Sequence to fold (443 residues):
Amino acid sequence: MKRFRSLHTLLLRADSHELPAVLSGFLMLFSLFASYFMLRPVREAMGIAGGVDQLQWLFTGTFVVTLAATPAIGWAVSKIRRRYICHCILGFFASNIIAFGIAFAVTGDTPWLARGFFIWLSVFNLAAISIAWSVLADIFSAEQARRLFALMAAGASLGGLAGPLAGALLVTRIGNEGLLMLAAILLLVTILCSEFLQRWRDRSPLAKIGNVSVKPDGSRDSRLGGSALAGAADVVRSPFLLGVALFVVMLASVNTFLYLEQARLVAERFSSRTEQTQFFATLDTVVQLLSLLTQFFLTARIATSFGVRALLVSLPLAMVAGFLLLSMSPLFGLFIVVLVLRRVGEYALVRPGREMLFTVLPPHIKYKAKNFIDTVVYRGADAVSAWLKSLADMMLVPAAVPLLGAGIAVVWAASAISISRTYRRLDALDDRPPVPSPMERFR
Fold:
C-alpha cells in the first residue's frame, strides 16, 4: 500500500484523499470536451460551406450573440447558489442541444440553421468550458492547481480524442440528430461530476490557506449577488484582470489568424465536404493525442518546477518563431506543424496555466469576471482579428501577413510575463492572514 501511495504521488502528484476529486475533475472535462468535439467537425465543415470569404461574418455574429448572452449568464450567476451555477448553465445548454437536434430532424441542415448552429456552438464552447474551469478553480487551492490541473486537463484532451472518433463511428448509424442527443447526455455527466466535486470539498475542506486555518466553506451554498454586468466592471477596475484580458486578446488573435488561413488552405486543397470533415477530424485527433501526452507527463512538472510563467510564455515565443518561418516558407506542411504546435501548446500548457491564475482570486471573480474574459473578450478579439486578417490579406503581400502575426505573438509573450509576475505576488499573499477586502489584493 505504501508503494502504491508513493507511486501515484510520484506519477500523478496527487495525495490519496485527492484522488477521487482528481478523477471526478478528469471525467468532468472528458465528458464536456467529448460533447463539444463530437460536434466540432460538423461545425467546421458548415463554416466552409458558407464560404471562406464569409467567415468573418460568422465570427462577428458569434461575438454579437456572445455579447447578448453574457448579461444573461451574469444574472444567472448572481441569482443561483454558487454550488449549482454549473448545474443550471450546463443544463440550459443541454436543452439547447436537444432543440437543435429536433430542428435538424424536422427541417434538415438548411443554410440559416447551419449558420445558427455554427454560432451557437462557438458560444457554447467558450461559456461551458469557462464555467467548468470556474468550478475547478473554486474547489482547489493554488498549490493543488499547480499539481493537479494538468491531470484534469488531460481529461479534456482524452474527450477531444473520443468525441471525433465517436462521431465518425456513430454518425452513419444515428445521424447528426443522434449525435446531438448523445452530446446532451454527456453534458449531464459533466453536471454530475460537478456535484461530486462540491460534495467532496464539503467532506474535505482545505485544512488551511498558507498558515491560516480555514473552516468548511459554507459560502458555496450562498448566492454571489451583484449585477449582471459586475464581471465586466471588475475587469475594468483591476490592472491584473486587464492584463489577463490582454493576454486572451492576443491568444484569440493568433488563433483567428491561423484558423482563417487553415480554412483557406483546406478549401483549396480538399474539394468535398466529406474530405474536409475527415481532415478536421484527423487534425483534432492528432492534436488531442499530443496534448494528452504533454499534460500527463510534462505540464505539472513544468508548473511545479518553473512556475506558471513558463506555462504562459512558452507558446507565445514558439508562435513568434512559427510565424517567422511561415513568412519565409509558406508551405502547407509547415503551416500544419505550426497549427498543431499552437493548439497543443494552448490545450496542454496555456489553458491550465491561465486557469491557475484565478485560483488566488475571490469566488465572484472566478465566475463573473472570468466568464466575461473567456467569452466576450475572447469573441470580441476573434471578430476584430478576423476583419484585420481580411484587411491584411487585401493590403499586404502574402509574406508580410505572418510577420503581422509574429508581432501579435510578441505582445502576447510580454503580457504573459506581466500577469505571471502579479500572480506570484498574489500567490505569496495566501501565506498571510486574509485581509478584510479580498478585492484589494488584485487591484
User: Anything to note?
Assistant: DSSP finds 13 helices and two strands in the chain. Residues 207-216, 431-443 have pLDDT under 50 and may be disordered.
